Amino acid sequence: MVSSKDVAKHAGVSQTTVSRVLNTPELVTKKTLEKVLNAIEELNYIPNDIARSLVQKKTGVITLISGPLHNPFFVDTTTAIVNYANENGYKINVYFGTEDNLHTIYNSVLESKTDAIILSSILYDDPLYDKLEKLNIPFITFNRKHKKDNHYVEIDNEHAGRIVAETMYSLGHTDLCWIGGPQTMSTFYGRHKGFCAALHNLGIATDKLPFYFTDTSKAEIKAVFEMIVSLDKRPTAICAATDAIAIEVMSLCLEKGFRIPEDFNIIGIDNVELSRHHSINLTTVGMKSEKNLGSLAIAQLLETLKEENACIRQTESVKLFLRNTTSKKVD
Q1: Is 115 within a domain?
Q2: CATH of the domain at 9
């Protein structure tokens, strides 16, 4: 096996110089850098990919900032992103962000070397966006977007919210409740906006219905559910802004002895893989194509690496997936 010592001898330099070329090439003269890189290539020294990345000024690494793993949406998309990147010759550095650690993650990512960044944790009015633009590194957001309306892949969130309201109304449910997430995120904001717009068009007064906005944690969803079951007039249908929220509500219903859909109809948005499980069978709204949003986003990001100044604005159409957690209202 070829060693760094062999590379040094072949290039006529010291092992220290070889190490410097691999780790801090900016400290090496151009002539010495070329000699060492040529020796690495000629001897097929491992790590050959490092030499290639130095020549191309690429790291072969993409950084993913995903949402928390208690949400199955991020389990699905992270898996898809990592697999797609690996199949196309890239390694992925994965960070799972929560409200508590996002600042630390952002600092780590912005200080490290990476070819591109893909993230789902951005706020609609997030100052991080300006920092990303100044880095001059390709990036894309998925599932959420910034107010600058660029570099994103999402589903049609407003239409998804409308479908939720219209579906429950078509089944005879007018006593509805909404459980969503922070309105500072385009996903939750858009879905809530579409839901309310549809109710208005259907003649249902939103000020008469309970709306709950959570941080999406299990603790807050449980607290909201306890408020719902204590209402004098309980809703017949619980409309959740995500499948993750809906599935947690399903668990709480069963824990308390409620029947689904007899006591509560439940509907979500995202159509995650877990929602299709036969033991869950959640009615939900998701992409018409039934593709993985993470796969679409990473594919677009890799295209931007080939084409400078690419502008990605992709909104996927949605449709209803009618399953077992909803049914016609019985008077």
Answers
A1: yes
A2: 1.10.260.40
